[in-house]
Each structure stands twice: as C-alpha cells, then as structure tokens.
Amino acid sequence: MNLAERAWSLLTRAQEVYADSPAATHWLRRHAARFGEPPRVAVAGPQGAGSSTLVAALLGEAADGRRQAAPMSWQHLPADAGWPELLVLDASASAQEAGPRVADALRMEADAVLYLAPHPHEADLALLRAAHDHPAIRLAPVNVLAVLARADELGGGRVDALISARRVARRWAAEAPLAELCQDVVAVAGLAALAARTLRPGEFELLAALAAAPKSELDPLLLSADRFGADPDRAELLGRFGLYGVRLATTLIRGGRDTPRALSAELGRRSGLDALGEAVSTYVARRAPVLKARSALLGLDVVLRREPRPSAAPLVTELERTLTGAHELAELRLFSTLRTGRVSLPEELGEEAARLVGGYGEAPQARLAVDAPEPALRQAAAGTLRRWRGYAENPVFGSAERLAASTVVRTCEALVTEPL
C-alpha cells in the first residue's frame, strides 16, 4: 500500500471514529475531497517580493484591478503553456496583519508552496520556518520551491540578467539555511513573465516602433527608468514590463520575434516562467499523490490532537508510523538533493538514482528503464538492488552519498517485494 492509499485509509477510518463530531467530520471530508482536486500551490513571500504579480502571470490576468479575487482564496489555473493544472493561492494577502494565518495556510491548506524573495538576502526565513512548524512535520521539507521573483534586478536589468540570476539560484539552492527548507530555487523576472502572458496589441505596436528606431536613438532611452519613462506612453509600458522587459522585448523583435504570439512565447521562456512551470511539473504535479497524502496526514493530525479520544488511539499510532516510515517523502527529498547538487554521486549513478526514486516517473517501468513483463521487471530490480547495496556500503563514498544510496536501496527493495 503506497502513501496515498495509507492516507486515504486513515482518513476513512477517522471519519468513522469522529462521526459524532460535526467539526472533525467536516475537516476530514475536506481533506478527503482534496484527493480529487488539482494540487494546491500557495504563492507567498515577504512584502514586495512579487507574489501578486506572479499569481497574475500564472492566471494570465493583468494586475490592473479588473478582476480581484477574495483575499486568501484559491483560484483555478487550467493546464496551459507548459504549466500543469493547479489551484493557486496568493498568500501574500494580509501578510502584514495576519502572519499566523498565512503560515497556517501554507502549513494546512497548501500541498506545495512557491516561496518568493526579491533577493537571497531578503528571504523571510521566519515565515518559511513557521510554515513547517508543526509537530507532525519532522521530516525534511519536500513541498517548497523558492523563487527569485525579481531576478532581472540581480543582473541590473541587462538583457542577459536571467543568466546571472540562474547562477545565483543554483548556488542558493545548495547553501544553508534555505537548502534545508526547500526543494529547489528558480529565477523568474516577474513583470516580464506577466507581460508575456498578458501582452496587449497596443503594447506590441509600441514595442515594435521602439525596436524599429535606430539603436543610437533607443539605447540612450533604455539607460534608466527615469529617462525611458519621461513619455507617458512609455511610462505605462515601463510599469507593465519593467526596464528589463522593455529591453528584452525590443531585442527579441529585432531578432525576428516580430509577431505578438512569437514575442509572448519567447518572453515567457526568457523571463523564467517556463522554467518555473517545468519545476512545478517536476516537483509538484508528477508527485501530486504523495504531496496530497502528506497534506491529508497533517490534517488528520490536527483532528487527533484537538479531539483526543480512546477510540482514536490506534489512528494516532498508525499515523506516527506512517509519517516516520514515509519512504515516498524521502525519495522526493533525495531527488531534490541530486538535482541541486547538495549530494553529488558520480554522473551516471546520480542520473540512475534520480530515475529509480521516481524523479522521471513513478511506474516501475520508468524507474527501472525496462519496458517488460513483471518477471523481467523483478529480475531487473533484483540486479539493481544488489548493485546499490554495494554502493551503500562503499567506504569510498562519504556519509551523505552512502545515505543517498541507502534510500535507493529501500526503493529497490520495494520494487522486488511489493506488487508492481
């Protein structure tokens, strides 16, 4: 029985135990219903980090007040443009007045979190730690992606600013303390991403006219925001794209992205929005059952603590056993450490480990890279298990590498012994 199945079973039994408690029953049914929903992803961060801008970019809506969602409400993001189907929450709303409420939303309501920071040194780690401050969360966090949401500023708004920002993100992903609190770090230029998703015909025409101007005329205007924004039309464009977005868009139009569709697509890629979508697909959508099971188990823990009763004692015991033995969560964490370089195995072994722990698909065929009937899968799993047991005991490896190999060993043991 996998983690999602164990979580569902526990929720079902808990509803029977708490059938006489309307509040507990409502809470448990809500968590059970979430198994049939898209993954819930909360976008949060310190004030000014760009949470609302990124949420607007995801939803494809200009942040001009024409459609305002209720504070702290989930909004539906259909699968589109490289992004999986999600429910998205702008958790920056009321963050100054309701910090505990935001932390509760991240801890109890979200399956995953996009944690935004304008710059690495401005990360509000207290909020992130509060989101993990729950008695049941003793395993390494597996549901947070950090986002450098104004990444273009790290490169001074240059056209190649995202290249520098990605290097910063990779370094940040491997360093404490953030490495201990998230799966990975992605760089995004939020305003450019929003403009890519909501490009208007008039804006494209103005950008095309700017791109057609001689460089000797345009380049001096793009030296500073004050100079470029001196004209009212250009000031509006600046507010929507940012100076980086204007520089990038005019460069792209000159380079042949001379239709609104082509410009929007390349802006989305160059803003980092596509890379963020790939990260969300990899860490969240593909492992949604595991993350939903984690959320359900935390929700069950709330009921067991708020309304303890003798008949629930077996549930308490099984919940603790399930959380401490949740190998699927250990697999998620190992996949992250391999991708970010926090644990370094020899290249071929690192790729094999990432595949075996389900990073590229949870089916046994995907894990073992063998498309064959069950007997052949079992045989391949047994051979793989023998090899990885050797790696786990190899004194040449450091302790972190041997621990990583031990996680892979447990995965292989399950492939050998459990139903495929």
In one word, what is the shape?
globular
CATH class descriptor of the largest domain: Alpha Beta
CATH architecture assignment of the largest domain: 3-Layer(aba) Sandwich
Major sheet details: 6 strands, mixed
Terminal residue distance: 11 Å
Indicate the structural class.
alpha/beta
Percent helix among the residues? Answer: 55-70%
- The name CATH uses for the topology of the largest domain is Rossmann fold
Radius of gyration: 24 Å
Low-confidence stretches are none
Number of helical segments with 4 or more residues: 20
The beta-strand count equals: 6
Can you lay out the helices and strands and say which pair or pack?
Layout lengths: L2 H15 L4 H12 L6 E5 L6 H9 L14 E4 L8 E5 L8 H11 L2 E6 L7 H7 L12 E5 L12 H13 L10 E4 L2 H8 L3 H12 L2 H7 L3 H4 L3 H23 L5 H11 L2 H13 L2 H19 L6 H12 L2 H14 L6 H10 L7 H5 L5 H19 L6 H19 L3
Parallel strand pairs: 1-3, 1-4, 4-5, 5-6
Antiparallel strand pairs: 2-3
Helix pairs in contact: 1-2, 1-14, 1-15, 2-14, 3-7, 4-5, 7-11, 7-12, 8-11, 11-12, 14-15, 16-17, 16-20, 19-20
Features:
single chain, about 425 residues, alpha/beta, Rossmann fold, six-stranded mixed sheet, 20 helices, Dynamin family protein, P-loop_NTPase
